[in-house]
Amino acid sequence: MIAFIGYLAAFLTTASAIPQLVTTLRTHDVRGISLTYWFTLAIGVAFWLLYGVLIGSGPLIAANAVTLALDVAVLTLTIRFRMAPKPVPELL
Question: Does domain 2-83 have CATH number 3.90.1150.10?
């Protein structure tokens, strides 16, 4: 039962980034995304990944590697879409 709780927690926290990633890819609307939040989250997840590597925990390594990839994808898309040139509205 304890292992199940751990795997469920790992799945849910890893999957939590997917809705933001899908919405960002679909709409390109990144106005409501906090870069500070996603950057801080990515750093925290990177440390969890390092911790998993240091103690040799496969589940920690796997879950945090996937989570880090998703977090970096959200960060990358947010920065990319914010820097994209905005279309100039036509006058007539």
Answer: no
pTM equals 0.85
The rounded distance, in Å, linking the Cα atoms of 83 and 8 is 37
The CA-based angle 86-40-84, given to 5 degrees, is 10
- Length of the chain as a residue count: 92
The Cα–Cα gap between 65 and 58 comes to 10
Please report which residue ranges of the chain form alpha helices under DSSP H: 2-15, 18-27, 35-55, 58-83
Q: How far apart are CA 17 and CA 73, in angstroms?
A: 9
pLDDT along the chain (92 residues), means of 10: 86 94 95 96 96 93 95 97 83 70
